[in-house]
TrEMBL record:
Highest taxon in the source lineage: Bacteria
Pfam families assigned: Peptidase_S9 (PF00326)
Gene3D superfamilies: alpha/beta hydrolase
BP GO terms, sorted: proteolysis
Organism of derivation: Scrofimicrobium appendicitidis
Peptidase S9 prolyl oligopeptidase catalytic domain sequence ranges: 447-650
GO molecular function: serine-type peptidase activity
Lineage: Bacteria, Bacillati, Actinomycetota, Actinomycetes, Actinomycetales
UniProt protein name: Prolyl oligopeptidase family serine peptidase
Length: 675
């Protein structure tokens, strides 16, 4: 069948904003308990509430937790470090969970008929997460974040009784470690004799410099001998995990890449002093090389590998922006990659020889995938609206040489629609995507956020600019001190490379991002003339103001990116978009949430009004009941449709049913005609 010739960007697409907002879910915190698979699921339809789901051995899937007292729903979330993460633990049917609506910890026994949720902590100013259940001692180890004094938030590792006594008397909650600014990742050895955890101190970040500690625990659950296993300058350590034999696996980046290490010697022989183990520990790298076996720890509970059997780990790793899954042999470090048709993008877990992981694919939406005796099966998909593969634009891994010689990575998605083709004398407009973080990474899997554009005739470039993760520590840290400058140059060089290849219309290039990505959008519009439109979703606008509003980890990271701890340093004003608005040289769409504590509506309004007063073309949308990040289905749908209509207006693209977008000062420049 012949295709209809139509201008790029105007193609009719089956991929709608509603199909994303209404049917997609997030799949996180994947764990196994025997044959059962557990995960936390969030959906725009639930308006941000997250639920704990279980897939049992019979293949039945359902919610696990009952209602709280007063028929209240459980929101499986923690606000520790503001980014949250691991909000529950499961062990032999026992569940400990943080309820995000009251910050209390609850206990639930799945083995007891008609069991109820038992509160383990009081309703106070403390938040908890990163749980590790100790059945023998009847406690759960947890990270505690105490906001009693909001100006001096305290972090500690604590032991909470499972009998609920801590909810009646806070003195029953014992402190294990409170000598450092931050703590995470408690993990108990198989015999219960050792507890390991990670700590770090400001101004360091968990991925710049952190320590791995191990303590011997007595019968009462008190540490009596502690050693620091990893504590080296500019070395970050994460994900301690015990093997069945009692060896400790961890990941650190002392080689320049996040590699796996094994420490042996934790056992004590008969007749030896109880602390004899501390003098004979031996650590060796399992599989050295330019691979990253984890990502920066923004959230609690990273789980990029697990113990598969007595001699193998199942793990994920990144190499040149591509993720892989496979095993590493404990005895000799031999690696074997698994070809499952999926690549891992989240937790990897194993139990009883079975493996589950959150997987990505070029043909299917992210899903929970199970591997059992080499059989691969999807347990849960993140979106039930399967795309017709004829419409699927698959990622092409591209690289280009930046102006300073650095090799930069990205993923290019060409426009694709089986019903349409563009005119021979026209090239497609480009949507340039800037991931947030910036220590995150663009991923190449099937994504409605990209197919929404490609099926309409837009090309997409998703950039892993310097500062991104999964390409080694040196690549990530090369953005330090150059935030707002170096990543903009990388992105511009990538756009220019696509233009040189005649893949895009260089006159119709947009740049879009959220959070730190939104900051980069504004920096690009103020410092280059490559982009003819931009969308900043709750992007940082006033860096000094952001320092006072952002979570502690975010603020410390921002200081590192600016290479300045003094907000009176001129660089903070020079790099803040709010101070460079006169240099904005393309129409910009500003989006934000009415409840955003970091990039407030007032801040967006101030920038909007200054742009209007200076004659710039600008549109603004503030969404009710949203914070720093959009979660509601109606918001997501409106945001996508508004962004499409904004570009269509700027570039003169005719849409069938555009939403109205009020662009101030529109008409001050002509429509950008396609070439």
């Amino acid at each position: 069948m012949s295709k209809e010739v139509a201008s790029y960007g105007s193609w009719i697409s089956p991929v709608t904003a509603q199909s994303y907002a209404g049917r997609s879910v997030t799949l996180t915190q994947l764990r196994m308990d025997g044959p059962d698979i557990y995960w936390v699921e969030g959906s725009p339809r639930r308006e941000g509430r997250k639920v704990l789901l279980r897939r049992n051995a019979l293949g039945q899937t359902g919610e696990v937790l009952p209602l709280l007292e007063g028929s209240r729903l459980v929101h499986v979330a923690t606000r520790v470090h503001e980014f949250g993460g691991r909000a529950y633990a499961i062990k032999n049917g026992r569940i400990v969970v943080s309820n995000g609506t009251d910050d209390r910890v609850y206990y639930f026994d799945t083995r007891t008929l008609r069991a109820q949720l038992v509160p383990l902590t009081q309703l106070d100013k403390c938040r908890y997460g990163d749980f590790e259940i100790d059945e023998a001692r009847g406690v759960v180890y947890a990270v505690c974040e105490d906001h009693t004094d909001p100006d001096h938030v305290q972090h500690s590792l604590v032991a909470i009784p499972l009998d609920g006594s801590g909810a009646r008397d806070t003195s029953k909650i014992r402190t294990i470690c409170d000598q450092t600014d931050f703590v995470s990742s408690p993990t108990l050895s198989p015999d219960g004799s050792k507890l390991a955890w990670v700590t770090w101190n400001r101004p360091e970040l968990p991925w710049t410099k952190s320590e791995l500690r191990v303590a011997a625990m007595n019968a009462a659950g008190e540490p009596f001998k502690q050693v620091t296993l990893v504590d080296r300058p500019d070395v970050a350590v994460t994900e301690p995990r015990w093997t069945f034999a009692g060896d400790l696996i961890h990941i650190d980046d002392s080689s320049g890449h996040a590699n796996l290490y094994r420490t042996e010697g934790f056992t004590t022989n008969d007749g030896e002093p109880q602390d004899a183990w501390a003098t004979r520990l031996r650590t060796r790298v399992l599989h050295p090389g330019p691979r990253s076996f984890t990502t920066p720890r923004w959230h609690l509970g990273l789980h990029s590998f697990d113990v598969l059997d007595n001699d193998h780990l199942i793990c994920s790793w990144a190499e040149d922006s591509q993720w892989h899954l496979g095993t590493i042999q404990l005895s000799n470090g031999l690696m074997e990659e698994w070809d499952t048709g999926w690549w891992p993008i989240g937790n990897v877990a194993a139990s009883e020889g079975r493996v589950v992981f959150v997987g990505d694919s070029s043909t299917h939406y992210p899903a929970i995938v199970r591997v059992d005796n080499a059989a691969v099966k999807v347990v849960r998909t993140s979106n039930e609206a399967e795309i017709d593969q004829d419409y699927n634009s698959r990622a092409e891994h591209v690289t280009w040489t930046a102006r300073d010689g650095l090799k930069v990575h990205g993923f290019y998605y060409p426009p694709n629609n089986p019903q349409f083709t563009g005119p021979e004398d026209e090239l497609p407009p480009l949507i340039t995507m800037v991931h947030s973080g910036p220590a995150n990474a663009a991923l190449p899997g099937l994504s409605l956020a990209k197919q929404y554009w490609t099926t309409r005739g837009f090309a997409v470039l998703d950039v892993n600019y310097r500062g991104s993760t999964a390409l080694g520590r040196k690549y990530r840290e090369s953005l330090n001190g150059q935030f707002g400058v170096a990543e903009v140059a990388d992105i511009v060089d990538g756009v220019n490379w696509l233009a040189e290849q005649k893949l895009i219309d260089s006159k119709r290039v947009a740049i879009a991002g959220s959070g730190t990505g939104g900051f980069t959008v504004m920096a690009a519009l103020e410092s280059t003339e490559v982009f003819s439109a931009g969308t900043s979703r709750y992007g940082y606008l006033d860096l000094r103001r952001t320092l006072t509003h952002a979570p502690i980890v975010d603020a410390d990271y921002l200081r590192r990116l600016m290479d300045s701890s003094d907000s009176s340093d001129p660089v903070w004003a020079e790099r803040s978009p709010i101070n460079q608005l006169a240099r904005v040289n393309a129409p910009v769409l500003l989006m934000g949430g009415a409840n955003d504590p970091i990039v407030t509506p007032d801040e967006i309004e101030e920038v909007y009004q200054k742009l209007v007063d200076s004659g710039k073309e600008v549109a603004k949308v503030i969404f009710d009941n949203e914070g720093h990040g959009f979660v509601r289905a109606d918001t997501l749908e409106s945001a996508w449709r508004t962004e499409l209509a904004f570009y269509a207006d700027i570039w003169g693209i005719e849409l069938q049913h555009p939403v109205p977008v009020e662009i101030a000062n529109r008409g001050s420049r002509p429509v950008v005609n396609p070439v």
